[in-house]
Amino acid sequence: MSNSMHQSSTVHDVTPDAVTPEVGHPAIDLNLPDLNDPLEDQDPDSSVSDCESLISTCRSDTALMPFISSGLTELSEGDQAFRIIRERFVSWLGAHGVEVAVVAIHQNSFSSVSAKARAQVFQLCSQAVQQRGGGSDTANVRHAWYAISREEVPNIFSYGFGYSGKPMNSALFGRGLYFAPEIHLIESAKYAPMDRDGLRHILLCRVILGKSELVTFGSEQSHPSSEQYDSGVDDLLSPTRYIVWSTHMNTHVLPEYVISFRAPCDLRERLRTSEMSREQTSPRVSCRNLISELLKILRPSDMNLVAKHYEDHMRGKISRHVLVQKVRQIIGDKLLIEIINGYGTKQSGA
């Protein structure tokens, strides 16, 4: 690294959007089963008002029958996993001004011999990546979303992932499957196609990231650049895409849930508009001013921790992103967002 990186005194900005709901959420229990136990498109003439009428929990049991026959079990609304997934799903999209209704959630039952085998391969690969990395967390297994069509669901759970050669979202960050981090659900929701019954479908998977390398836009990379890497990301500090190479798609990905939901037919446009609006209107506060505001309200022990992390940031030891994550862990997302929004109001003279 150059000396300029270590000596940088640039004052970075923090926005409420940077305070993602990554820290402080209870983990979804996605434990593997005991592997030793037996066990079409919407009419293009539809209007926006027609689309709004789709936001209901009405469902067609016939439409989802192929899910059951491919080894999936439908969760009841009283199931804890159903409640947690639905709450996050609806709230994260609702934060972008989009009303959705979760119609059904199906869980991989791992009941067939081939499904058990794929789950076992995933476990073995996770252990291998961890052993190679030399640490308890080096497998870097994360939850991630993957948008699919209804027709793809039975095929994926029966036979595994296939690769057509080009991601469905056409955003070229290498040749592989693109997954959205759990906190970036909108990156998958934008590309979930609507079926003939007005439903969209997204997988919730576990993905072995291992050691990730940066993949730039326009790349035609199709496998890790060296043996030390396992996956790709579009941003090393705050990725919105996990890239799983086609060589790893049936060893490093374990699909566990299918979320079937209704949303406006102009979902993609609404989410894009929301993103643009947030970029233009989010209040910004420099890290220096944020520390000054925290000094007024934090107890000395917490403030000393924040001050230490800020000093590390100013010396180039940690990035702005890491600083924000550490501050979030100390004070919590709610207080941090209140401070940022309050600072923006004060600056505007409101």
Automatic annotation (TrEMBL):
Looking at the UniProt record for this protein, which Gene Ontology cellular component terms does it annotate, in alphabetical order?
A: nucleus
Renumbered residue ranges of the record's region Disordered: 1-48
Q: Which Pfam families match?
A: PARP, RST
Q: Which spans does this entry mark as compositional bias, Polar residues?
A: 1-12
Q: Which UniProt keywords apply?
A: Developmental protein, Nucleus, Stress response
Tell me the domain of life.
Eukaryota
RST domain segment(s): 278-349
Cleavable signal peptide: none
PROSITE patterns, alphabetically? PARP_CATALYTIC (PS51059), RST (PS51879)
**PARP catalytic domain mapped to chain residues:** 56-283
**Compartments where located:** Nucleus
Write down the InterPro entries for this protein, in alphabetical order: Poly(ADP-ribose)pol_cat_dom (IPR012317), RCD1/SRO1-5 (IPR044964), RST (IPR022003)
Name of the protein in its database record: Poly [ADP-ribose] polymerase
Q: Which organism is it from?
A: Eucalyptus globulus (Tasmanian blue gum)
